[in-house]
Amino acid sequence: MGIRQNLKLWENNVTHIDENGDMVTERVPRVLPPNPWKVMRMLSAENYMFFFMGLAAWTADGYDFNAVNLVTTQLSATYHKPLTDITLSITLTLLFRSVGAAIIGIASDMYGRKWPMIVDLYILAVLQVGTAYAPTYAAFIGVRVLFGIAMGGIWGLSAAMALENMPVEARGLFSGILQQGYSMGYLIAAVINIVAVPHASEGYKIIFHVGAGFTGLVAIVQMFIPESRLFRAPENPEERPKSGTRIKMFVKDLKLAARQYWKMFLYCILLSAVFNWMSHGAQDMYSTYMKVQKGFSNTNASRATIVGQCGAVIGGAVCGYYSQFIGRRLTVVIAVCFGLCMIPLWTLPSAWGSLAAGNFFVQFAVNGAWGVMPVLLNEYAPPQFRGVFPGTVYQIGNMLSAPAAQIQTVSASGWIVNGKPNYSQVMTIVLCIVFAAVGVVTACGQERLGSHFELVKRAGAEENIQKEMKENCNNVGMR
């Protein structure tokens, strides 16, 4: 379908993989979703196991990234650098995440979800310790660059592992919950910043110690979890193809997917870019804005962050659930329209309670829209490459949004009002633009609600290899 037809959001025209494994386009009637508790009962114990492992990994990732955002002022004092230099580390982390997404994603599509995830988590734990003890500013920047590469591999694997192992009807709700792992990580980091940082003998470094321990613990637990179902197909060892044959078939599938999905790949990069501008524009500088412009203490700024992240978690679950009813794209459009209405409450008041309420509703909208993204990108992706495709487009979008914190800091620092950087006006302008952009770009895409991507064999699957080998043998015999 063309863009004009896609924009008719009220018609719910869907292009998806049906229950027979065929790609079809049809108009799907909107039916009320079952009670959320009924949806939750659809999952087996194994479904929940994979979901919670994906959620735990993404939560650890969210904690690790946002730890720096919460202690930017302390890092500025430690390295005797202005805040603009410290936020450069955030920019560089985002820039290099796409590299890790491509490397780890390809490994997960070829070898399975489990071990690429474990290795990546252990690397992140080590780099969290490195962040705490970087002796110089240059070393700190170098560690955060490496951290960005490692961090890039987590989201795609988490989403693929969680969603490919659960019923189609439950994916909307659990996509919304899964995406809020990032907010849960931010929330945990904010709590540590309030409870532990002021009282720890090493000060802000404790936030990185906890992050390293948390991430390492997730990796340890992952070692005792079986491989994702898609990669557990029984094989006869005598018929198992050689490694070279497997790689050849994998590359063949990858080239075919590249030819068929390159336009979708570019669209998803644009979609991810505007989504990431939305989240980073609303979150990265919020703690600094509350402390520097509004004059609140580190504790009260962190408390407002916690209130906002509570809104984020609720918004993701609610919007994810209803996306199974009204469609992924219309859910996003409604969420960003609500967010636009909440911006004045987010920036205009001076009282802590009003600002915290504004943050709650803005984060509800931002993460409500984001709650749809894990399942939306998995539905858009080539079904054999749901490790590398969603993760890579997501992280390239992150890369394109990397300057968000830096641009907001520089703009606010150059726009002084009452002797303080004008973060409120800068953040208002940014969010108005990106909320509108998210709504328009999302509406232009296809609806793929209810796609049965789990029915498609993985890239380089043994069945495909054996079929290829038989065809080659037949061709040789005919000669």
TrEMBL record:
<dbReference type="GO" id="GO:0005886">
    <property type="term" value="C:plasma membrane"/>
</dbReference>
<feature type="transmembrane region" description="Helical">
    <location>
        <begin position="48"/>
        <end position="66"/>
    </location>
</feature>
<protein>
    <submittedName>
        <fullName>MFS general substrate transporter</fullName>
    </submittedName>
</protein>
<keyword id="KW-1133">Transmembrane helix</keyword>
<keyword id="KW-0472">Membrane</keyword>
<feature type="transmembrane region" description="Helical">
    <location>
        <begin position="145"/>
        <end position="163"/>
    </location>
</feature>
<feature type="transmembrane region" description="Helical">
    <location>
        <begin position="302"/>
        <end position="323"/>
    </location>
</feature>
<dbReference type="InterPro" id="IPR020846">
    <property type="entry name" value="MFS_dom"/>
</dbReference>
<dbReference type="Pfam" id="PF07690">
    <property type="entry name" value="MFS_1"/>
</dbReference>
<dbReference type="GO" id="GO:0046943">
    <property type="term" value="F:carboxylic acid transmembrane transporter activity"/>
</dbReference>
<feature type="transmembrane region" description="Helical">
    <location>
        <begin position="423"/>
        <end position="444"/>
    </location>
</feature>
<keyword id="KW-0812">Transmembrane</keyword>
<dbReference type="InterPro" id="IPR036259">
    <property type="entry name" value="MFS_trans_sf"/>
</dbReference>
<feature type="transmembrane region" description="Helical">
    <location>
        <begin position="360"/>
        <end position="381"/>
    </location>
</feature>
<feature type="transmembrane region" description="Helical">
    <location>
        <begin position="184"/>
        <end position="200"/>
    </location>
</feature>
<feature type="domain" description="Major facilitator superfamily (MFS) profile">
    <location>
        <begin position="50"/>
        <end position="448"/>
    </location>
</feature>
<feature type="transmembrane region" description="Helical">
    <location>
        <begin position="264"/>
        <end position="282"/>
    </location>
</feature>
<feature type="transmembrane region" description="Helical">
    <location>
        <begin position="86"/>
        <end position="107"/>
    </location>
</feature>
<feature type="transmembrane region" description="Helical">
    <location>
        <begin position="206"/>
        <end position="225"/>
    </location>
</feature>
<dbReference type="InterPro" id="IPR011701">
    <property type="entry name" value="MFS"/>
</dbReference>
<feature type="transmembrane region" description="Helical">
    <location>
        <begin position="330"/>
        <end position="348"/>
    </location>
</feature>
